[in-house]
Amino acid sequence: MDILIDLDNILVDTYKIWLKAYNLFYLPKGAEEVKIEDLTNFEMDKNKNVNGNIWKIIDSDGFFKDLPEIEGGVWAVEKLQKAGHNVIICSSPSKNIGSWTDKIYWIQNHLKIMSNKNIILTGSKQLVMADILIDDSPKNAYNWRKKNPKGIVAQINWPYNLNSVAQIKADSWEDTKSAWQTILGKIL
Ligand SMILES: [Mg+2]
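# magnesium ion complex -> structure
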């Protein structure tokens, strides 16, 4: 099968670092620190105590380059590859043009996917056909299923995607290794 796999919050531990930086530099005075549990809206700046400055962080040079792996993610990619599936990394870059190279850098550093046949960077994932999309964004799940009605969307559960249209919902961001095991259990 062709399996599209997202980076941020699926293979890369993006939100924890992103929030840490936000709380440090941009949290409004007197506001309580924002935690992952508070992120009930996928649009980051629509969550309580989060303002538009949060975009400055991911739009800064080098942000994506050195982010840590999510536990279980790289392990899962290798399992899928070993089982003969065609794994394609499908990720949306940010507005900053440097994020394109930062993301490629991350992929080359962490995954045994060195071929350009296995990397798609796009803000329009719904236009990419495949059997399965593994992605945390409720918007991507909706748009992709609309264009790929026979396709399956799988997600790791985060506070902002519990109501998404993904068919496979795996608990959870608090134990991503176990979430990945759940997803593999349904696919393999
Ligand atoms: Mg993501």
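# post-check
The pocket of magnesium ion is lined by residues 6, 8-10, 135-137 (CB under 6 Å).
The chain has two domains: 2-12+68-187, 14-58.
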